[in-house]
Amino acid sequence: MIWSAAKALMIRDLSLLWRRRGDALQPALFALLVVVLFALALGGEAQALAKVAAAVLWLAVLLAGLLALDTLFRGDADDGSLEQWLLAPVPLSWLVLVRTFMHWATTALPLLVATPFLAELLHLPHEQLPVLLASLALGTPLLSLLGAVVAALTVGMRRSGILIALLALPLYVPILVFGAGSVAAAGQGLDPVGALLLLGAGLVLALVLAPLAAAAAIRIALD
Amino acid sequence: MHPVVRWFHQLGSPPYFERFAARWAPIAYIAGLLVMAYGLYGALFVVPADYQQGDSFRILYIHVPSAWMSMAAFALMALYAAIALIWRIKLCEILAMACAPVGAAFTLITLATGSIWGKPMWGTWWDWDPRLTTELILLFLYLGVIGLYNAIDDRRNASRAAGLLAIVGVALLPVIHYSVTWWNSLHQGQTISLFGTSHMDPSMLPPLWAMVIGTHLWFVGSLLARARADNLRRESGKDWVARLAEPRA
After folding, report:
1. In whole angstroms, what is the distance from residue B37 CA to residue B59 CA?
2. Which residues pair with B50 in a beta bridge?
3. Number of domains in chain A
4. Do the chains contact at A174 and B133, CB–CB below 8 Å?
5. Rounded Cα distance, B36 and B209, in Å
6. How many Cβ atoms sit within 10 Å of the Cβ of residue B9?
7. Residues of chain B contacting residue A175, judged by C-beta atoms under 8 Å apart
8. pLDDT exceeding 70 applies to what percent of chain A?
9. Does A216 touch chain B (CB under 8 A)?
10. How confident is the model over A110-164, as pLDDT tens digits?
11. Chain B CB within 8 Å of residue A55 CB
12. What residue ranges of chain B have pLDDT lower than 50?
Protein backbone atom coordinates (compact mmCIF):
# COMPACT_ATOMS: atom_id res chain seq x y z
CA MET A 1 0.00 0.00 0.00
CA ILE A 2 2.60 2.55 1.00
CA TRP A 3 4.78 1.69 -1.98
CA SER A 4 1.97 1.98 -4.50
CA ALA A 5 1.01 5.35 -2.97
CA ALA A 6 4.62 6.47 -3.20
CA LYS A 7 4.82 5.31 -6.81
CA ALA A 8 1.63 7.15 -7.74
CA LEU A 9 2.86 10.34 -6.08
CA MET A 10 6.25 10.10 -7.79
CA ILE A 11 4.73 9.54 -11.23
CA ARG A 12 2.37 12.47 -10.70
CA ASP A 13 5.17 14.78 -9.57
CA LEU A 14 7.42 13.75 -12.44
CA SER A 15 4.73 14.22 -15.08
CA LEU A 16 3.83 17.62 -13.61
CA LEU A 17 7.48 18.55 -13.74
CA TRP A 18 7.84 17.30 -17.30
CA ARG A 19 4.92 19.41 -18.48
CA ARG A 20 6.57 22.51 -17.04
CA ARG A 21 10.13 21.76 -18.01
CA GLY A 22 11.19 25.41 -17.92
CA ASP A 23 10.45 25.73 -14.20
CA ALA A 24 12.63 22.76 -13.40
CA LEU A 25 15.73 24.61 -14.52
CA GLN A 26 15.11 27.63 -12.28
CA PRO A 27 17.07 26.55 -9.17
CA ALA A 28 20.16 25.70 -11.23
CA LEU A 29 19.84 28.98 -13.13
CA PHE A 30 19.50 30.91 -9.86
CA ALA A 31 22.59 29.22 -8.40
CA LEU A 32 24.50 30.09 -11.57
CA LEU A 33 23.44 33.73 -11.22
CA VAL A 34 24.54 33.85 -7.57
CA VAL A 35 27.92 32.39 -8.51
CA VAL A 36 28.37 34.86 -11.37
CA LEU A 37 27.40 37.83 -9.18
CA PHE A 38 29.79 36.74 -6.43
CA ALA A 39 32.62 36.27 -8.93
CA LEU A 40 32.06 39.72 -10.43
CA ALA A 41 31.69 41.38 -7.02
CA LEU A 42 34.97 39.84 -5.89
CA GLY A 43 36.73 41.19 -8.96
CA GLY A 44 37.17 37.89 -10.77
CA GLU A 45 40.65 37.30 -9.40
CA ALA A 46 41.37 33.57 -9.45
CA GLN A 47 43.17 33.44 -6.09
CA ALA A 48 40.55 35.47 -4.23
CA LEU A 49 37.81 33.32 -5.75
CA ALA A 50 39.46 30.02 -4.89
CA LYS A 51 39.58 31.01 -1.24
CA VAL A 52 35.82 31.61 -0.94
CA ALA A 53 34.67 29.18 -3.66
CA ALA A 54 33.35 26.48 -1.33
CA ALA A 55 31.44 28.97 0.84
CA VAL A 56 29.91 30.68 -2.19
CA LEU A 57 28.84 27.36 -3.73
CA TRP A 58 27.23 26.26 -0.47
CA LEU A 59 25.42 29.58 -0.22
CA ALA A 60 24.25 29.40 -3.84
CA VAL A 61 22.83 25.91 -3.31
CA LEU A 62 21.20 26.92 -0.01
CA LEU A 63 19.58 30.05 -1.46
CA ALA A 64 18.38 28.21 -4.56
CA GLY A 65 16.80 25.61 -2.27
CA LEU A 66 15.18 28.34 -0.20
CA LEU A 67 13.67 29.85 -3.33
CA ALA A 68 12.13 26.53 -4.34
CA LEU A 69 10.87 25.77 -0.83
CA ASP A 70 7.51 27.47 -1.15
CA THR A 71 6.47 25.22 -4.06
CA LEU A 72 6.87 22.09 -1.91
CA PHE A 73 3.22 21.90 -0.75
CA ARG A 74 1.79 25.11 -2.24
CA GLY A 75 0.24 23.60 -5.38
CA ASP A 76 -1.36 20.74 -3.47
CA ALA A 77 -2.71 23.11 -0.84
CA ASP A 78 -4.27 25.32 -3.52
CA ASP A 79 -5.99 22.57 -5.51
CA GLY A 80 -7.08 20.53 -2.49
CA SER A 81 -4.80 17.52 -3.00
CA LEU A 82 -3.42 18.08 0.49
CA GLU A 83 -6.86 17.31 1.97
CA GLN A 84 -6.80 14.04 0.04
CA TRP A 85 -3.42 13.28 1.60
CA LEU A 86 -5.03 13.67 5.02
CA LEU A 87 -7.82 11.26 4.04
CA ALA A 88 -5.53 8.73 2.36
CA PRO A 89 -5.13 5.35 4.08
CA VAL A 90 -1.33 5.77 4.17
CA PRO A 91 0.43 7.80 6.88
CA LEU A 92 0.66 11.51 6.09
CA SER A 93 4.30 11.58 7.15
CA TRP A 94 5.11 8.94 4.52
CA LEU A 95 3.58 11.05 1.77
CA VAL A 96 5.48 14.06 3.10
CA LEU A 97 8.71 12.06 2.98
CA VAL A 98 8.06 10.94 -0.61
CA ARG A 99 7.19 14.46 -1.70
CA THR A 100 10.29 15.85 0.03
CA PHE A 101 12.43 13.27 -1.70
CA MET A 102 10.93 14.14 -5.09
CA HIS A 103 11.43 17.83 -4.38
CA TRP A 104 15.05 17.18 -3.48
CA ALA A 105 15.57 15.04 -6.57
CA THR A 106 14.15 17.70 -8.88
CA THR A 107 15.61 20.85 -7.33
CA ALA A 108 18.79 19.90 -5.44
CA LEU A 109 20.05 16.95 -7.50
CA PRO A 110 20.44 19.00 -10.72
CA LEU A 111 22.42 21.52 -8.68
CA LEU A 112 24.63 18.74 -7.38
CA VAL A 113 25.29 17.68 -10.98
CA ALA A 114 26.05 21.27 -11.95
CA THR A 115 28.39 21.81 -8.98
CA PRO A 116 31.65 20.67 -10.69
CA PHE A 117 30.90 23.14 -13.49
CA LEU A 118 30.11 25.97 -11.07
CA ALA A 119 33.21 25.06 -9.04
CA GLU A 120 35.28 25.51 -12.17
CA LEU A 121 33.88 29.02 -12.60
CA LEU A 122 35.06 29.86 -9.08
CA HIS A 123 38.48 28.16 -9.46
CA LEU A 124 37.81 25.76 -6.59
CA PRO A 125 41.01 23.72 -5.99
CA HIS A 126 40.46 20.29 -7.52
CA GLU A 127 41.34 18.31 -4.41
CA GLN A 128 38.48 20.04 -2.54
CA LEU A 129 35.84 19.05 -5.09
CA PRO A 130 35.13 15.51 -3.74
CA VAL A 131 34.72 16.89 -0.21
CA LEU A 132 32.40 19.62 -1.49
CA LEU A 133 30.30 17.08 -3.40
CA ALA A 134 30.14 14.76 -0.39
CA SER A 135 29.10 17.58 1.92
CA LEU A 136 26.44 18.73 -0.54
CA ALA A 137 25.18 15.17 -1.06
CA LEU A 138 24.69 14.84 2.71
CA GLY A 139 23.64 18.41 3.35
CA THR A 140 21.06 19.12 0.65
CA PRO A 141 18.63 16.35 1.69
CA LEU A 142 18.95 17.68 5.24
CA LEU A 143 18.10 21.16 3.98
CA SER A 144 15.10 19.77 2.10
CA LEU A 145 13.83 17.87 5.15
CA LEU A 146 14.09 20.86 7.49
CA GLY A 147 12.64 23.01 4.73
CA ALA A 148 9.67 20.65 4.49
CA VAL A 149 8.81 21.42 8.13
CA VAL A 150 8.96 25.16 7.47
CA ALA A 151 7.02 24.90 4.21
CA ALA A 152 4.35 22.86 6.00
CA LEU A 153 4.10 25.50 8.74
CA THR A 154 3.47 28.26 6.21
CA VAL A 155 1.20 26.26 3.90
CA GLY A 156 -1.96 27.76 5.38
CA MET A 157 -0.93 31.28 4.44
CA ARG A 158 -1.80 32.85 1.13
CA ARG A 159 1.70 34.26 0.67
CA SER A 160 4.62 33.20 2.81
CA GLY A 161 7.14 35.67 1.32
CA ILE A 162 10.03 36.61 3.57
CA LEU A 163 8.60 34.65 6.51
CA ILE A 164 9.67 31.32 5.02
CA ALA A 165 13.27 32.61 4.92
CA LEU A 166 13.07 33.90 8.50
CA LEU A 167 11.84 30.50 9.69
CA ALA A 168 14.19 28.35 7.60
CA LEU A 169 17.51 30.18 7.87
CA PRO A 170 18.08 29.69 11.63
CA LEU A 171 17.49 25.96 11.13
CA TYR A 172 19.85 25.96 8.12
CA VAL A 173 22.76 27.61 9.93
CA PRO A 174 24.26 24.45 11.51
CA ILE A 175 24.11 22.62 8.16
CA LEU A 176 25.84 25.52 6.41
CA VAL A 177 28.48 25.72 9.13
CA PHE A 178 29.34 22.03 8.99
CA GLY A 179 28.95 21.74 5.21
CA ALA A 180 31.13 24.70 4.31
CA GLY A 181 33.32 23.91 7.32
CA SER A 182 34.18 20.44 6.02
CA VAL A 183 35.48 21.90 2.74
CA ALA A 184 37.38 24.63 4.59
CA ALA A 185 38.97 21.98 6.79
CA ALA A 186 40.02 20.00 3.73
CA GLY A 187 41.47 23.21 2.25
CA GLN A 188 43.65 23.63 5.34
CA GLY A 189 44.82 20.05 5.16
CA LEU A 190 42.68 18.94 8.10
CA ASP A 191 40.43 15.91 8.19
CA PRO A 192 36.96 16.78 6.86
CA VAL A 193 35.40 13.46 7.90
CA GLY A 194 34.25 14.65 11.33
CA ALA A 195 32.03 17.39 9.93
CA LEU A 196 30.72 15.03 7.22
CA LEU A 197 29.82 12.42 9.83
CA LEU A 198 27.92 15.05 11.82
CA LEU A 199 26.01 15.98 8.66
CA GLY A 200 25.24 12.29 8.10
CA ALA A 201 24.03 11.90 11.67
CA GLY A 202 21.83 14.95 11.26
CA LEU A 203 20.45 13.52 8.03
CA VAL A 204 19.51 10.24 9.68
CA LEU A 205 17.83 12.06 12.56
CA ALA A 206 15.94 14.41 10.24
CA LEU A 207 14.89 11.52 8.00
CA VAL A 208 12.99 10.09 10.95
CA LEU A 209 11.75 13.21 12.73
CA ALA A 210 11.23 15.87 10.04
CA PRO A 211 8.39 14.08 8.16
CA LEU A 212 6.55 13.62 11.47
CA ALA A 213 6.94 17.30 12.36
CA ALA A 214 5.94 18.39 8.84
CA ALA A 215 2.88 16.12 8.94
CA ALA A 216 1.87 17.64 12.28
CA ALA A 217 2.29 21.12 10.80
CA ILE A 218 0.11 20.24 7.79
CA ARG A 219 -2.58 18.93 10.12
CA ILE A 220 -2.50 22.22 12.04
CA ALA A 221 -2.59 24.29 8.86
CA LEU A 222 -5.57 22.42 7.42
CA ASP A 223 -7.46 22.15 10.70
CA MET B 1 -10.33 15.57 43.75
CA HIS B 2 -7.09 16.63 45.35
CA PRO B 3 -7.13 20.40 46.01
CA VAL B 4 -3.87 21.01 44.10
CA VAL B 5 -5.13 19.06 41.07
CA ARG B 6 -8.43 20.92 41.23
CA TRP B 7 -6.65 24.27 41.39
CA PHE B 8 -4.62 23.25 38.35
CA HIS B 9 -7.76 22.39 36.38
CA GLN B 10 -9.43 25.63 37.43
CA LEU B 11 -6.43 27.61 36.19
CA GLY B 12 -7.18 26.38 32.67
CA SER B 13 -10.45 28.29 32.68
CA PRO B 14 -10.08 31.77 31.13
CA PRO B 15 -12.09 33.73 33.77
CA TYR B 16 -10.25 32.01 36.61
CA PHE B 17 -6.89 32.70 34.93
CA GLU B 18 -7.88 36.35 34.50
CA ARG B 19 -8.40 36.72 38.26
CA PHE B 20 -5.22 34.74 39.00
CA ALA B 21 -3.05 36.80 36.61
CA ALA B 22 -4.57 40.09 37.73
CA ARG B 23 -3.58 39.29 41.29
CA TRP B 24 -0.14 37.75 40.79
CA ALA B 25 1.39 39.73 37.89
CA PRO B 26 1.90 42.94 39.95
CA ILE B 27 3.21 40.94 42.89
CA ALA B 28 5.76 39.18 40.65
CA TYR B 29 6.79 42.52 39.12
CA ILE B 30 7.29 44.22 42.48
CA ALA B 31 9.10 41.25 44.02
CA GLY B 32 11.32 41.02 40.94
CA LEU B 33 12.06 44.73 41.06
CA LEU B 34 13.00 44.60 44.75
CA VAL B 35 15.24 41.55 44.37
CA MET B 36 16.90 43.05 41.29
CA ALA B 37 17.40 46.36 43.11
CA TYR B 38 19.21 44.51 45.92
CA GLY B 39 21.23 42.54 43.35
CA LEU B 40 22.20 45.62 41.34
CA TYR B 41 23.17 47.54 44.46
CA GLY B 42 25.38 44.64 45.50
CA ALA B 43 26.83 44.31 42.01
CA LEU B 44 27.65 47.99 41.59
CA PHE B 45 28.73 49.04 45.10
CA VAL B 46 29.47 46.07 47.37
CA VAL B 47 31.29 43.54 45.23
CA PRO B 48 35.04 44.30 44.84
CA ALA B 49 36.47 44.95 41.38
CA ASP B 50 37.84 41.94 39.53
CA TYR B 51 41.62 41.53 39.71
CA GLN B 52 41.90 41.20 35.93
CA GLN B 53 38.89 42.91 34.42
CA GLY B 54 38.48 45.80 36.84
CA ASP B 55 35.02 47.27 36.97
CA SER B 56 33.84 46.16 33.54
CA PHE B 57 33.05 42.66 34.79
CA ARG B 58 30.06 44.13 36.64
CA ILE B 59 27.97 43.98 33.45
CA LEU B 60 28.01 40.22 33.97
CA TYR B 61 25.36 40.71 36.65
CA ILE B 62 22.92 41.60 33.88
CA HIS B 63 24.44 39.49 31.11
CA VAL B 64 24.45 36.09 32.80
CA PRO B 65 20.93 36.17 34.33
CA SER B 66 19.37 37.35 31.06
CA ALA B 67 21.32 34.73 29.08
CA TRP B 68 19.95 32.01 31.36
CA MET B 69 16.50 33.53 31.12
CA SER B 70 16.66 33.65 27.30
CA MET B 71 17.20 29.89 27.18
CA ALA B 72 14.80 29.06 30.02
CA ALA B 73 12.06 31.09 28.34
CA PHE B 74 12.53 29.13 25.11
CA ALA B 75 12.38 25.81 26.95
CA LEU B 76 9.26 26.92 28.82
CA MET B 77 7.68 28.10 25.56
CA ALA B 78 8.32 24.71 23.95
CA LEU B 79 6.93 22.95 27.04
CA TYR B 80 3.73 25.00 26.97
CA ALA B 81 3.49 24.45 23.20
CA ALA B 82 3.85 20.68 23.67
CA ILE B 83 1.11 20.69 26.33
CA ALA B 84 -1.07 22.80 24.05
CA LEU B 85 -0.55 20.45 21.09
CA ILE B 86 -1.08 17.25 23.06
CA TRP B 87 -3.94 18.17 25.41
CA ARG B 88 -5.27 21.15 23.46
CA ILE B 89 -5.38 23.39 26.51
CA LYS B 90 -6.19 26.85 25.21
CA LEU B 91 -4.47 28.64 28.05
CA CYS B 92 -1.17 26.88 27.32
CA GLU B 93 -1.29 28.18 23.74
CA ILE B 94 -1.65 31.69 25.14
CA LEU B 95 1.14 31.18 27.67
CA ALA B 96 3.50 29.73 25.05
CA MET B 97 3.00 32.72 22.78
CA ALA B 98 3.38 35.11 25.71
CA CYS B 99 6.85 33.63 26.37
CA ALA B 100 8.16 34.57 22.91
CA PRO B 101 8.45 38.39 23.07
CA VAL B 102 9.78 38.32 26.64
CA GLY B 103 12.36 35.69 25.75
CA ALA B 104 13.34 37.64 22.64
CA ALA B 105 13.87 40.74 24.78
CA PHE B 106 16.12 38.83 27.18
CA THR B 107 18.08 37.43 24.20
CA LEU B 108 18.55 40.96 22.85
CA ILE B 109 19.73 42.16 26.29
CA THR B 110 22.18 39.27 26.43
CA LEU B 111 23.62 40.09 23.01
CA ALA B 112 23.78 43.82 23.72
CA THR B 113 25.46 43.55 27.14
CA GLY B 114 27.80 40.87 25.80
CA SER B 115 28.96 43.07 22.99
CA ILE B 116 29.35 46.13 25.25
CA TRP B 117 31.52 43.98 27.51
CA GLY B 118 33.37 42.50 24.53
CA LYS B 119 34.58 45.84 23.17
CA PRO B 120 37.00 46.66 26.03
CA MET B 121 37.79 43.01 26.91
CA TRP B 122 38.16 41.28 23.54
CA GLY B 123 38.70 44.46 21.54
CA THR B 124 35.73 43.76 19.30
CA TRP B 125 31.98 44.25 19.40
CA TRP B 126 31.27 40.96 17.76
CA ASP B 127 33.02 37.71 17.02
CA TRP B 128 31.69 34.68 15.11
CA ASP B 129 32.30 32.49 18.08
CA PRO B 130 30.04 29.45 18.62
CA ARG B 131 28.26 30.80 21.67
CA LEU B 132 27.62 34.24 20.22
CA THR B 133 26.43 32.73 16.96
CA THR B 134 24.07 30.26 18.61
CA GLU B 135 22.62 32.99 20.82
CA LEU B 136 22.01 35.08 17.68
CA ILE B 137 20.26 32.11 16.05
CA LEU B 138 18.13 31.84 19.19
CA LEU B 139 17.05 35.44 18.61
CA PHE B 140 16.12 34.60 15.00
CA LEU B 141 14.13 31.60 16.20
CA TYR B 142 12.23 33.81 18.63
CA LEU B 143 11.55 36.27 15.82
CA GLY B 144 10.41 33.39 13.61
CA VAL B 145 7.96 32.19 16.25
CA ILE B 146 6.59 35.71 16.73
CA GLY B 147 6.42 36.28 12.96
CA LEU B 148 4.61 33.01 12.31
CA TYR B 149 2.16 33.70 15.15
CA ASN B 150 1.31 37.09 13.67
CA ALA B 151 1.14 35.88 10.07
CA ILE B 152 -1.71 33.38 10.51
CA ASP B 153 -5.18 34.85 10.94
CA ASP B 154 -6.81 32.21 13.11
CA ARG B 155 -5.38 32.70 16.63
CA ARG B 156 -5.61 29.06 17.68
CA ASN B 157 -4.03 27.71 14.49
CA ALA B 158 -1.38 30.42 14.67
CA SER B 159 -0.35 29.55 18.20
CA ARG B 160 -0.22 25.84 17.43
CA ALA B 161 1.86 26.32 14.27
CA ALA B 162 4.25 28.70 16.06
CA GLY B 163 4.36 26.30 19.00
CA LEU B 164 5.43 23.48 16.70
CA LEU B 165 8.27 25.68 15.43
CA ALA B 166 9.29 26.30 19.05
CA ILE B 167 9.40 22.55 19.67
CA VAL B 168 11.58 22.03 16.58
CA GLY B 169 13.85 24.89 17.68
CA VAL B 170 14.40 23.39 21.12
CA ALA B 171 17.10 21.21 19.53
CA LEU B 172 19.27 24.34 19.55
CA LEU B 173 19.24 24.80 23.35
CA PRO B 174 21.77 22.07 24.21
CA VAL B 175 24.02 23.37 21.43
CA ILE B 176 24.03 26.84 23.00
CA HIS B 177 24.58 25.47 26.47
CA TYR B 178 27.48 23.20 25.53
CA SER B 179 28.94 25.43 22.81
CA VAL B 180 31.72 26.61 25.13
CA THR B 181 32.60 23.02 26.02
CA TRP B 182 32.41 21.47 22.56
CA TRP B 183 34.37 24.05 20.61
CA ASN B 184 37.36 26.21 21.36
CA SER B 185 35.71 29.50 21.90
CA LEU B 186 36.54 33.06 22.72
CA HIS B 187 33.63 33.13 25.15
CA GLN B 188 34.71 31.90 28.56
CA GLY B 189 33.51 28.58 29.87
CA GLN B 190 31.03 27.84 32.60
CA THR B 191 32.19 29.48 35.84
CA ILE B 192 28.98 29.47 37.82
CA SER B 193 27.15 26.33 38.75
CA LEU B 194 23.95 25.73 40.64
CA PHE B 195 25.11 22.38 41.99
CA GLY B 196 28.75 21.90 42.90
CA THR B 197 31.40 24.55 43.19
CA SER B 198 31.49 27.75 41.20
CA HIS B 199 34.80 29.07 39.93
CA MET B 200 34.06 32.52 41.21
CA ASP B 201 34.94 34.29 44.39
CA PRO B 202 32.17 33.57 46.96
CA SER B 203 31.80 37.29 47.73
CA MET B 204 30.75 37.91 44.10
CA LEU B 205 27.97 35.35 44.12
CA PRO B 206 25.07 36.60 46.31
CA PRO B 207 24.20 39.61 44.07
CA LEU B 208 24.35 37.31 41.03
CA TRP B 209 21.86 34.87 42.53
CA ALA B 210 19.68 37.84 43.48
CA MET B 211 19.76 39.01 39.86
CA VAL B 212 18.95 35.50 38.63
CA ILE B 213 15.95 35.23 40.95
CA GLY B 214 14.93 38.81 40.14
CA THR B 215 14.93 38.24 36.35
CA HIS B 216 12.92 35.05 36.81
CA LEU B 217 10.32 36.89 38.89
CA TRP B 218 10.22 39.69 36.33
CA PHE B 219 9.75 37.11 33.58
CA VAL B 220 6.84 35.55 35.45
CA GLY B 221 5.30 38.99 35.85
CA SER B 222 5.55 39.84 32.16
CA LEU B 223 4.40 36.37 31.18
CA LEU B 224 1.25 36.70 33.29
CA ALA B 225 0.57 40.26 32.12
CA ARG B 226 0.99 39.34 28.44
CA ALA B 227 -1.01 36.14 28.76
CA ARG B 228 -3.75 38.07 30.57
CA ALA B 229 -4.00 40.59 27.73
CA ASP B 230 -4.06 37.87 25.05
CA ASN B 231 -6.60 35.88 27.07
CA LEU B 232 -8.93 38.90 27.29
CA ARG B 233 -8.50 39.61 23.58
CA ARG B 234 -9.40 36.05 22.60
CA GLU B 235 -12.36 35.92 24.96
CA SER B 236 -13.55 39.42 24.08
CA GLY B 237 -16.92 38.18 22.82
CA LYS B 238 -17.81 36.48 26.09
CA ASP B 239 -20.12 37.75 28.81
CA TRP B 240 -17.61 37.63 31.64
CA VAL B 241 -15.25 39.96 29.74
CA ALA B 242 -18.09 42.37 29.05
CA ARG B 243 -18.90 42.35 32.76
CA LEU B 244 -15.27 43.14 33.59
CA ALA B 245 -15.33 46.11 31.21
CA GLU B 246 -18.41 47.62 32.86
CA PRO B 247 -17.67 50.37 35.36
CA ARG B 248 -18.08 49.15 38.88
CA ALA B 249 -21.18 50.46 40.62
Report:
1. 15
2. B54
3. 1
4. no
5. 10
6. 12
7. none
8. 100
9. yes
10. 899 999 999 998 888 888 899 999 999 999 999 999 999 999 998 878 777 788 8
11. no
12. none
Spatial CB neighbours of A16, under 8 Å, sequence gap ≥ 6 = A75
- Is B31 near chain A, with CB under 8 Å? no
Letter for the amino acid at B178? Y
As a whole number of angstroms, the distance between CA B17 and CA A221 comes to 28
DSSP three-state, residue B54? strand
Tell me, what's the pLDDT at A197?
92
Tens digits of residue pLDDT in A171-182: 898 899 889 888
Contact indicator for A201, A174 with CB cutoff of 8 Å: no
CB pair distance less than 8 Å for A156 and B157: yes
Judge whether B138 and B176 are in contact, CB under 8 Å.
Answer: yes
pLDDT at position A88: 87
B176 touches chain A (CB under 8 A): no
Decide if B165 touches A, using CB distance below 8 A.
yes
**pLDDT score of B49:** 75
pTM of the model: 0.88
Angle at Cα A160 formed by Cα A33 and Cα B137, nearest 5°? 75
B85 CA to chain A: closest CA distance, Å? 9
- pLDDT band at residue A185 using 50, 70 and 90 as cut-offs: confident
Q: Note down the domain range covering A89.
A: 2-222
pLDDT tens digit sequence for A66-124: 888 888 888 888 888 888 998 988 999 999 999 999 999 988 998 999 999 999 988 88
Backbone torsion region of residue B13, taken as left when φ is above 0, otherwise alpha when ψ lies between -120 and 50, otherwise beta: beta
| Integer Cα distance of A33 and B80 in angstroms | 44
- Answer with the residue of higher pLDDT: A65 or B201: A65
For residue B55, the 8-state DSSP code is G
Q: What is the CA radius of gyration of chain A?
A: 18
pLDDT tops 90 at residue A51: no
Assess whether pLDDT exceeds 60 at residue A47.
yes
Q: Which fold has domain B24-232?
A: Four Helix Bundle (Hemerythrin (Met), subunit A) (1.20.120)
- Size (chain A), residues: 223
What does B175-232 look like in DSSP terms, one character per residue? HHHHHHHHS--SS------SSS--SS-GGGHHHHHHHHHHHHHHHHHHHHHHHHHHHH
* Cβ pair A166:B151 closer than 8 A: no
Q: Is B147 on the interface with A (CB under 8 A)?
A: yes
What's the first-to-final CA gap in chain B, in angstroms? 37
What's the pLDDT score for residue B190? 64
In this complex, which of B143, B157, B164 lies closest to A166 when CB atoms are compared? B143
